[in-house]
Design a protein that fits this description.
Strand order of the largest sheet: 1-2-3
Shape: elongated
Distance between the termini: 77 Å
Strand content: 5-15%
Order of helices and strands: HHHHHHEEHEH
Number of strands: 3
Helix content: 40-55%
Length: about 180
Amino acid sequence: MEGSFRDRFTNLLLESKLIKKDQLNRVLSKHKKIGGNLGRLLIEERLITEKNLMVVLSREFNIPPINLSKYKIDPKVLKLIPESLARKYVLMPVSEIGNHLTLAIADPLNIFAVDDIKALTGHKIDLTVSTTHDIKEAIETYYKEQDQGMTKILEQTTEENSELEVVKEGADNLGTVEESE
């Protein structure tokens, strides 16, 4: 094995001249104290951008990057993953071909996310890497469109079936059930 992921990651940052050795040592010292995600810490310290992180992760794991703002996602793919899971794991379903589901994910090391999606969908998972910002923006855009579509369908159904009565929740709306023998 060629060393730990952290070593390979930091070497790529240095080789790409994205960060200087003294900056890296300072951040590694802080990371040792507080833990967490090293990439996130580098971004928080404003030493690299999300795009830089995406490129480094893409190179290291040989995972293609994706710019979600330039990609059209089929609404049927959104139905495979609930919005809550997409937000929790910062991922976006991109496409489905046969039993393969392609996900855009900000953290390709998050095996829990991949395993949960695999268990939920029964699909084989293919990954692309994207920035957290782009994924969150795509979630807002696409899941909002899906919600608006459902609202429109409900409105049309209500208009077409005007005899449907909307019942508000509350104890005063409860009827009495009589026993019959």
